Amino acid sequence: MSRELLLLLLADVILVVHVLFVCFVVFGLVAVYLGYFLNWQWVRNLSFRLLHLLAIGIVVLQSWLGVICPLTIWEMALRKEAAAGTYAGSFIQHWLHQLLFYTAPDWVFILLYSAFGLLVLVSWFLVRPKRHFH
Question: pTM for this one?
Answer without folding.
Answer: 0.82
